[in-house]
Amino acid sequence: MNLGGFSWKRLLGIRPPSTPPMTHPAETLWAEHAAVDVHKAEVQMLHDACALAGITTQPPTEDAPVPMPLDARATLIEPGNAPDPVVLARIQELFHGLIRSRAREGGIPMPKHLPSLHDLRVDEAEPRWFAVPGMYGGFSFRLQAHALGPRIVTESWCRVVDGSGMRHTITPTQVVLDEQGFV
User: Fold this and answer.
1) Number of H helices, E strands in the chain
2) Whole-angstrom Cα distance, residue 177 to residue 101?
């Protein structure tokens, strides 16, 4: 259904049952709502939006799950475990943006394949490495547990450019430059 130039199905990421599995992190949010605690108002909003789009859904019930804030879900992880998939998808999206940004700064082509964070575990012994062709370097990264939720700490550099090193912390909501000028 198209209302006023907006496709509500596309906006909400609603897919009919015959649609192949979703692969983009932002598109998976609808599918993951069944697996995470959702506030009653959000459930009602999604139900109403589906009705507008002509999609039949079960009406929300009074025993809808009690809401749990994103950061609270994120802190319930132990070393060796993975965080909430929604949280990890948000971190991955920002990490990919950082990789693209560093590639643009260096005037090199965008990497065709970017690293997936979905198999990362908290506090792995060694950081992972993602080499960026043409950068003569790349990104080391590791998933860390933190009181405010999981985060990725990444270091990137070009080994032929002195002082090109940058260390960033990536949370579900932001990318913070912690240090630069090393390597």
Assistant:
1) 5, 7
2) 13
Q: How far apart are CA 168 and CA 155, in angstroms?
A: 6
| The one-letter amino acid at 34 | A
pTM over 0.70: no
Residue 156 CA to residue 153 CA, distance in Å, equals 10
pLDDT in tens, 60-92: 565 545 444 444 444 445 656 778 889 999 999
Which residues are registered as beta bridge partners of 165? 182
Contact 132, 99 (CB under 8 A): yes
Tell me which residue has tokens 């609270």: 72
137 touches 166 (CB < 8 A): no
- Alpha-carbon span 77 to 163, nearest angstrom: 35
Matching residue, tokens 């939720």: 149
